[in-house]
Amino acid sequence: MKKTIMTMLLLAGMLLPAGAQKFALVDMEYILKNIPAYERANEQLSQTSKKWQAEVEALNQQAQTLYKNYQNELVFLSAEQKKQREEAILAKEKEASDLKKKYFSPEGELYKKRESLIGPIQDEIYTAVKGVAEQRGYALILDRASDNGIVFASPTADISNEVLAKLGYSN
Fold first, then answer.
1. CA 25/CA 54 separation, integer angstroms
2. Is residue 6 part of a domain?
């Protein structure tokens, strides 16, 4: 009985400080939609991605054309000519694959471009969120846009507009 009471008192003592913590929510999607530089960066990334995708598709198309020509002329080719054509097709497919990897891999050019364009914006937002948190004494700030675990949140807990104001964008 004494152990049960002591355990309950110990748990209650541990929970009391946790109840005093302040928290808030931000909606990163909402914040990003209200920053014109982010929209411009996204548009630039989209255009670059489309351009690079067209380059990759052009190489794939060339490889397909080589293959179709090879199939049509197969009966007329010598063994040496067949080997040369097959090597040319494989080389073109490899070229397309390498270009796709160069542009779109996790370490590719698109990732680097995204980091250079969007990274500074995200850093600026993080600094603003941190500033609001320190100013208002928040111990925890959650992103309501990325966390599906939040079923309900009071609108008063959302500090997204305050973060936008700190960034210089009023809404």
1. 41
2. no
